[in-house]
Specification:
By secondary structure, the chain is an alpha/beta fold. The chain is 36% helix and 13% strand. It contains 13 helices and twelve strands. The radius of gyration is 22 Å and the shape is globular. The protein starts with 6 loop residues before the first strand and ends in a 14-residue tail after the last helix.
């Protein structure tokens, strides 16, 4: 008699190698289009699946979880962030949630440094001039940016990604400062030559570049609000490769337009795919379409973690990357 295989519904297109392996292991429904599922489609999927594999574009709230079928026992998220899933309600309903931590660390840290350089060295402005054919040759005073060596980098959130950013920034000669829920162990702090600030206000007022690398939780929503942004030096640069909700985007836009902040590099936005149109008009702002973890290697590794979490669950064990409300 054939072994009953788990019913798995995947909400977005995944790398082909990941989809193929899922097909081999589970009774899987793959997505024919890369468009996000609608709310009704998500609810329908949750009614018929044993396992749902969503991504950050899939908002799963308490009301939707209340409509889930009795068979849904695991939400195996494709991604590290789970702020789009009501983890507490899922746990109350006996549904496990897992994620893919650690996979995107180096890719996101690389993109953070790319944005720091792009803004401080005015790379997009140079690209526009070259692509438009308006370049008239080298000039001693044209497109002068700032040197990052010797500058103070303030890292907001010193987890895996924050520490990876610190290692890269040190190689560029930057001085590392950080604010975190918990201070790092002395040996880690010493290896990074990092200065800890218990007061975020005090750190923000002293750094030349601030990098947002903390997750979005109720406690980090608008952590960089209008009041804190006003503490920044006028020459400071803000970079965000974490979650858009951590920054008050309207306040940031106003200050950038007023010249109260020198520039910004943003890979994430408060409205997710809805970007403040006033940001697009600013030459000192670099906007990217959430590319921080966009490498072939990273996406495949994320898929492999999803597979391990589902397979471990199928074998009767808790997924290795289970997310608990207390972790958020």
């Amino acid at each position: 008699m054939p072994i009953q295989r788990l019913s798995v519904v995947v909400t977005r297109r995944l790398p082909e190698v990941v989809e193929t392996r899922m097909k081999e292991l589970f009774d899987v429904e793959l997505r024919d289009t890369d468009a996000p599922m609608t709310r009704d489609e998500l609810v329908a999927a949750m009614k018929r699946a044993d396992v749902l594999v969503p991504t950050l574009t899939d908002k799963i709230d308490a009301n939707m979880l209340a409509q889930a079928g009795d068979t849904l026992k695991l939400i195996a998220n494709f991604g590290a962030g789970v702020d789009h899933i009501d983890v507490a309600t899922a746990r109350q309903r006996g549904i496990l949630v897992s994620n893919t931590p650690g996979v995107v660390t180096d890719d996101t840290a690389d993109m953070t440094m790319a944005l720091i350089l792009a803004v401080t060295r005015r790379i997009p402005e140079g690209l526009v001039v070259m692509q438009s054919g308006r370049w008239e040759g080298w000039s001693p005073t044209a497109y002068l940016g700032g040197r990052i060596g010797g500058k103070r980098l303030g890292i907001l959130g010193m987890g895996r990604i924050g520490q990876a950013v610190a290692r890269r920034a040190r190689a560029f000669g930057m001085q590392i400062h950080y604010h975190n829920r918990r201070r790092l162990r002395p040996e880690i702090e010493g290896a990074l030559e990092a200065t800890y600030w218990e007061s975020l206000d005090q750190m923000v007022s002293r750094v030349d570049v601030i990098s947002v690398n903390c997750p979005h939780t109720p406690s980090t929503f608008h952590l960089l609000n209008a009041r804190r942004l006003k503490l920044l030096k006028p020459s400071a640069v803000v970079v965000n490769t974490s979650r858009g909700e951590v920054i008050d985007e309207n306040a940031l836009t106003r200050m950038l337009r007023a010249g109260e902040i020198a520039g910004a590099g943003l890979d994430v936005f408060e409205g997710r795919s809805e970007i403040n149109p006033r940001l697009r008009e600013l030459p000192n702002v670099v906007l990217l379409p959430h590319m921080g973890s966009s490498t072939i290697e990273g996406r495949v590794e994320m898929g492999e973690k999803v597979l391990i979490n589902i397979k471990t669950f199928a074998d009767g064990h808790r997924p290795p990357d289970q997310v608990l409300p207390s972790m958020l």
